[in-house]
What does this fold into?
Amino acid sequence: MKKVLLTLLLPLLAAAASAGPLDQLRRGLDLPSAPEPALESADASHLAGDDRYWVTVTADDKYDRTALLRSGLDIVEIEKNFVSGFIRLDAMEQLAAKGFIVRSRQPIADYAARHLKDFPAGDAVYHNYSETTDALKELAAAHPAEASLFSLGKTTEGREIWCLRLNTSEKGETPSTRPAVLFMGNHHGREHLTNEVALALARHLLANKADPAIRGYLDTLDVYVAPLTNPDGAEYDIKTGKYRWHRKNTRINPDKSVGVDLNRNYDSLWCQAGASQYASADTYCGPYAFSEPETRAIRDFVLARPNLKTLMSYHSYSSLLLYPWAGRDEDVADARDRKVFETMARAMGALTAYRPQRASDLYVATGDTGDWAYAARGVFAFTAELDGSTFYPGAAMIEKAAAKNIKAALYLLGVSDDPYKLAR
It folds into this structure.
C-alpha cells in the first residue's frame, strides 16, 4: 500500500515540542486535514460464517458491565443505562437467564455491511505489519545517534514485536540507568489507529531532535516505542481486505476459535472480574496468565528494566485517559502514588480533551497491562482510549489523534525523570 508520510504533521508539532510549560502545550494545533474517503459499497460476505452479534443490553452500572464482560460480551460503547458490543450467539442466548435484557441484536455481517470500508482503498494510509517494520527500520537507520531497533520477542505466528529505542547513549537491549518510558500500540488487532499514533510520536521526536526540549529527553531518558504489540491480530483483521473486527491474537483454541485477549492475559488478578473463560469470547483471558508469547514479551521487557518509570498503552476508542486500578473496584492505596496518577491523568486529559478517570469506574477488568506493570514494578502506567466513534475512523483521524496525543506524550516525557515530583 502506498504510504502518506504525514510530513505536514511534523513541523506543525514542533512548536508544541519546544513550548515546555503545560499551559503552552495546551495550545491547539492548526493541522491540515486529510479528506475522509467516501465509503465504498459494503460487502460483508466474508463475515457470513461469523456467529457474533452486535447487541445492545441493559446495564445500570459498572457492576452490570463487569458481569457482562465475564459473560462474553465485548463492550465497545457505554451509555447511561445500556451497553453495546460483540458477543457470540451461544453466550448471547444465555444473557436472559442471567437477568439481562437484550434490547437489540444484529448479526455481525449485517452490522459490518453498514459500517465496513475496504481497507486498501479507504485506509491505505494505515501501516500494516510489513510497512510498520519498514518505517521503524528507516527511522533507526536515518538517526543512528539517537535510535536503535530490536525485537521484544516473537508472536504466536512467529512475527517480531519491534521496539524502537530512543537513547543517545545505550542502544538495542543494553541496560541503562536513565529513567525509562514505554509507549505501546495495537494490543488489540482492530485498533489500527493506535499503531499510527505511536509511529507519529516516534517520527516527531526524531524529526525534532534538535529542539532543546526534545534533545533533553533524548539525552537523559530511555524512550521505547513499540507501536504494534499484536501484529498477528492486526494482520488477521485485514487479511481479507475487509475488516473483521478482530480483537485478540491468533492462538487457535481447543474449540477452534481464534485468539486470546492480550489485555486480559496479564498476571494481575488474572481471569477474575471482567474477563471471560469462554474461548470464543472476545475478552477470553487465555488458559493461564501470560500464556501468550506477546504478553510474555512485554512481561520480560518490563521485568528486565528496573529503570522503567512510566508506560502509555494506546487503545481505541472512547476519548478516555485511564489509570489503575482496572481490575479492582478501588483506588490505588498508596496516597502518594494515587496523587501522581491523578495529577498526570488530569494533565494529559487536558491536553487531549480525554476524560481522566480510574479504569474500574467503567467496569472491573482483570488481567490488564497497566495494573500488572504498576503492581509488579511500580510503573505509572496509563491507557489512552483514542478519539473516534468506531474502530475504523478513516484516514483523517490519524492527524487529529496524533497531534493531541503527541502533546500528552511530551508531558509524560517531561515528568518521567521523577514522577514523584508531582506529589511534593
In short: The first strand starts at residue 52 and ends at 58. Confidence is low (pLDDT under 50) at residues 1-41. The radius of gyration is 20 Å. The chain has two domains: 9-39+119-242+262-423, 45-115.
